[in-house]
Amino acid sequence: MLDSCKLKSACNLPLIYNKKINTSGTSNADVPLADPGMYQLDITLRKGQSLAARDRGGTSDPYVKFKVGGKEVFRSKIIHKNLNPVWEEKACILVDHLREPLYVKVFDYDFGLQDDFMGSAFLDLTQLELNRPTDVTLPLKDPHYPDHDLGIILLSVTLTPKEGEHRDVTMLMRKSWKRSSKTQSLRLSDVHRKSHLWRGIVSITLIEGRDLKAMDSNGLSDPYVKFRLGHQKYKSKIMPKTLNPQWREQFDFHLYEERGGIIDITAWDKDAGKRDDFIGRCQVDLSVLSREQTHKLELQLEEGEGHLVLLVTLTASATVSISDLSVNSLEDQKEREEIFKRYSPLRIFHNLKDVGFLQVKVIRAEGLMAADVTGKSDPFCVVELNNDRLLTHTVYKNLNPEWNKVFTFNIKDIHSVLEVTVYDEDRDRSADFLGKVAIPLLSIQNGEQKAYVLKNKQLTGPTKGVIYLEIDVIFNAVKASLRTLIPKEQKYIEEENRLSKQLLLRNFIRTKRCVMVLINAAYYVNSCFDWDSPPRSLAAFVLFLFVVWNFELYMIPLVLLLLLTWNYFLIISGKDNRQRDTVVEDMLEDEEEEDDKDDKDSEKKGFINKIYAIQEVCISVQNILDEAASLGERIKNTFNWTVPFLSWLAIVALCVFTVVLYFIPLRYIVLVWGINKFTKKLRCPYAIDNNELLDFLSRVPSDVQVVQYQELKPDPSHSPCKRKKNNLG
Q1: 454 and 536 together in one domain
Q2: pTM of this structure
Q3: How many CB atoms lie within 10 A of CB 428?
Q4: Exposed, middle or buried, 443 (CB in 10 Å: 0-12/13-18/19+)?
Q5: How far apart are CA 323 and CA 560, in angstroms?
Q6: Has residue 596 got a pLDDT over 60?
Q7: Looking at the 3D structure of the chain, how many domains does it have?
Q8: Exposed (0-12), middle (13-18) or buried (19+): which is 41, by Cβ within 10 Å?
Q9: Phi, psi dihedral angles at 358 (to 5 degrees)
Q10: Do the beta carbons of residue 345 and residue 478 sit within 8 Å?
Q11: Is 410 helix (H, G, I), strand (E, B) or coil?
């Protein structure tokens, strides 16, 4: 071995090894090796340069894995949003012999999904000199696309022979994640568990900005703020034409690390039709903030001008856990009683944010789609409740996997929707989508094991396979009702809005349908004035005289109350007047067109390029149409008893309003309302304004959501494979 080292020394190898070191993965068999011993390989992972972009924003969140002999021996930290990351991390690895090369793989981190492959390289250890630090440059390649330039990784390595007795001291080799046994699959589950169980919650309230930098020609800006904590992101609303914006928005991040972490904050000026202008940045180091206490922070913006004012509170972790099927909370009678006691009617005002408890048993799936060329899949399951996101382990080479895992969640809003998605784990590639179900918490039957037919990504039609779940929901109805009147929690992992011709047309049709209801009502009233039907006009005239002569303000909520009651009796008598067939057909037609989008890809790109300059305007119109249509559909669905809990809540509220308006003069009500409005800023300077009626309506599903949440019935005669194209992700 020493002779071979002398031979290499005489060869005068350059410090950059991408020309001399064998990067194809084959070891140098021409160099004679001595009897295998133990070698210590000290590696410093320096940095990457010109790495491949894997995220939609043109960046990546890269990290690096080192493997020797098929075993992972090191994993670096994640550098977010950077194609030229600097790690400067050190690893000390023991290798048995030098015939096995060091396998370097780079991935882009994607929260909850399979990380994207960014390239790999081999370092031939037989080409290294002993006891001499060497700088190495490794060009990254993708075996499937060998011509693609994926950037380089820079390392500093030192190879040292070691004695046998020092193995335990220097060994940092991690356990192998092989895919051949159940125990090794459970190791992957442990890693997921460590990565996705949080230790606390960071509540952030964005209050205001002061003296921000003017970015527009009018001397003002249209500022908004982006927050990032690890993989978690939040974007505030845009405040037009101001340098002193008042946001007053509240959101939560999960805290995964004991020491806290760093929140990156950037302020931007919105520019329609072109790239947004950067206003400034700042950071919040959570490790220096005390817990269970609200901190008011005034942060100076770096690389810009002005301040941001925040309220930050660190609290203990919510009830979130993963366990095996044999160990779960509700099976233990004592724990079950404690949970029921926690959400009993007597504890209404104890922690209003703790509305309820959710337990999800992910048992198994059957008849999944084959995503691999072998005719099998490597399925794992992602369980989501708002921003809470947990994973099962992967079951390899199986179309009928059994997970037998129990997930528990803390319910903040009883109107949340549980989403269970099945993916196929793909080695070096993004996870393939296999199917998904969305289950509103209020529709769950406790303790019932059900087979849910998996749906496609849009939740509009079936895909192959069923998943067996058993779900229990325990909640306090009064807390749930009170939480209905505050703003809904935003989901900060949602995909950005994109322009879609089909979606734009569908939203236009939905809005038109709502507007036509008003137009038809106006025509009906006008026909009464025109005496098109004398009996109807006479009845309307008598009703008009009676109502106007006897009108009192309390009659407005009373009429709405009567309408709700009338619809309720229609439904229980079997005369359900709710029509959703046209909506279902529209959504399925959209899906068919989306299935054909690959065939028309070039045509679509040409269309998008033509309207790129007005793309943001079109997206705004698309979103406005969606909001207008959704508002009308939510009002209709409230009176149609689509969600009985919300309709009963509306009945209680309307009864209260009717009684109040009947017994209390209007001037007193207006006086109380005005005093509250004028003094609110003095009493609660940082209170977040909200509209209770709109918050209530935001919990009522629109017609599109009703279709998405609708449970499909298993149909053995229906084969999803006969569809034009299967939705594989």
Answers
A1: no
A2: 0.58
A3: 16
A4: middle
A5: 47
A6: no
A7: 4
A8: buried
A9: -125, 130
A10: yes
A11: strand
Give 45's contacts (C-beta < 8 A, 6+ positions apart): 64, 76, 87, 88, 89, 90, 91, 153, 155
Write down which residue in 426, 450, 484 finishes a domain.
484
Torsion angle, alpha carbons of 83, 89, 94, 95, to 10: 20
For residue 348, how far is the Cα from the chain centroid? 30
Q: Which residues sit opposite 565 in a β-bridge?
A: none
User: DSSP strand E in 368-424: where?
Assistant: 379-385, 388-391, 402-411, 417-424
354 in a structural domain = yes
pLDDT for 700 equals: 92
Res 609 pLDDT > 70 = no
Share above pLDDT 90 across residues of the chain, in percent, rounded to a whole number: 17
pLDDT value for 259: 60
Q: What is the pLDDT of residues 229-253, one digit of tens each?
A: 877 888 888 899 899 999 988 888 8
What pLDDT sits at residue 429? 65
Q: Are residues 361 and 471 in the same domain?
A: yes
DSSP assignment, residue 573?
A: T
Asked if 395 and 343 sit in the same domain, the reply is yes
| Candidate from 168-172, 430-434, 588-592, 647-651 with smallest mean pLDDT | 168-172
**Given its phi and psi angles, is residue 216 left (phi above 0), alpha (psi -120 to 50 degrees) or beta?**
beta
CB of 319 closer than 8 Å to CB of 388: no
Measured over all CA atoms, what is the biggest interatomic distance in the chain, rounded to whole angstroms?
Answer: 114
Q: 534-550 vs 501-529: helix axis angle to the nearest 10?
A: 90
Among 316, 346, 374, the domain boundary falls at 316
Distance, CA of 184 to CA of 194 (rounded, Å) = 16
Encode pLDDT of 644-663 as tens digits. 999 999 999 999 999 999 99
Rounded Cα gap, residues 421 and 454, in angstroms: 8
Rg for the chain (alpha carbons), in Å? 31
* Distance set, CA 535 to CA 520, 521, 524, 541 (Å): 19, 18, 14, 10
Handedness of CA 250, 253, 255, 261 (dihedral sign): negative
* Containing structural domain, residue 45: 39-161
* Residue 443 DSSP label: G
Per DSSP, the three-state class of 340 is helix
What average pLDDT does the segment 552-562 reach? Answer: 87
- State which H helix or E strand residue 86 sits in: strand 86-95
Same domain, 301 and 446: no
Q: What is the pLDDT of residues 423-478, one digit of tens each?
A: 888 766 667 889 999 999 999 988 888 999 999 888 888 888 999 999 999 999 89
C-beta atoms surrounding 617 within 10 Å? 13
Q: Is 312 inside any structural domain?
A: yes
306 versus 197: which is more confidently predicted? Answer: 306
Please report whether residue 225 resides in a domain.
Answer: yes
Q: Does the residue 193 lie in any domain?
A: no
pLDDT, average across residues 615-638: 82
Residues 376 and 473 in one domain: yes
DSSP secondary structure code for residue 76 in this structure: P
The answer on 347 and 464 residing in a single domain is yes
**pLDDT score at 659:** 92
| 533 and 653, same domain (yes or no) | yes
For 81, the token pair is: 């949003």
Read off the pLDDT of each residue in 396-419 and give the average, rounded to a whole number.
89
19 exposed, middle or buried (CB, 10 Å; 0-12, 13-18, 19+)?
exposed
Indicate the pLDDT class of residue 266, thresholds 50, 70 and 90. Answer: very high
Check residue 13 and give its pLDDT: 34
Asked whether residue 376 falls in the same domain as residue 350, the answer is yes
Spatial distance between the Cα atoms of 135 and 158, rounded to a whole number of angstroms: 9
Say which amino acid occupies 678: F
Between 550 and 175, whose confidence is greater? 550
What local confidence, expressed as pLDDT, does residue 597 receive?
A: 44
CATH of the domain at 365: 2.60.40.150
- Region 539-568: what's the mean pLDDT? 86
Query: Which residue shows structure tokens 């599109």?
Result: 704
Could you give the 3-state DSSP secondary structure of residue 625?
helix
Strands of 62-68's sheet in order across: 71-75, 62-68, 102-108, 116-123
